[in-house]
Amino acid sequence: MMTPVDAETILDRFRRAGGLLEGHFRLTSGLHSPGYLQCALVLQHPAEAEACGVALAERTRGLGIHLVLSPALGGIVIGQEVGRALGVRAIFAERQDGRLTLRRGFAIQPGERVLVVEDVVTTGGSTRETIEVARAAGARVAGAAAIIDRSGGHQELDVPFHALAVVSLPVYQPEACPLCARGEPVVKPGSRA
Ligand SMILES: [Zn+2]
Q1: CA 183 / ligand 1 centre spacing (Å)
Q2: Fewest CB within 10 angstroms: 1, 135, 140, 186, which?
């Protein structure tokens, strides 16, 4: 049975699944942080993934979405669940030669209203890049959504943004990272999995 997802319970879910790591991490954005959220460990449980998808769909249902677009790989599972809950198709963009691209015959029609869905938003960089993929296809990006906004609410997106939880985990430029200054080895989360 699904239990409701809200900001108070989402971090508990991460802790229970072992998806909240502490140490010294190099994030996808290149920034360093003492904390890392591994959404895949939560989303590996289909009931958790479904609950997160339903909760994000509730927050975005009023946007009149035609399709969900997610960046691979992190956004695929939650994008699929949000699409299922909204009753719309869910597609993903993936990197080819370093550039986020629609492949596999995925297409967006001009004028379609797109919701960009990610697992975790840190700087908003990959969200913005995904928004540009949709706009380049002539779509209207009606909003963006993520399970967790770990920017502390400081991501700068030019579309309405919804997250199930906002957390503030510090991030540092590598050259200004206090953990590097102490000589602590940095790890890229998930790279040894
Ligand atoms: Zn560091």
Answers
A1: 8
A2: 1
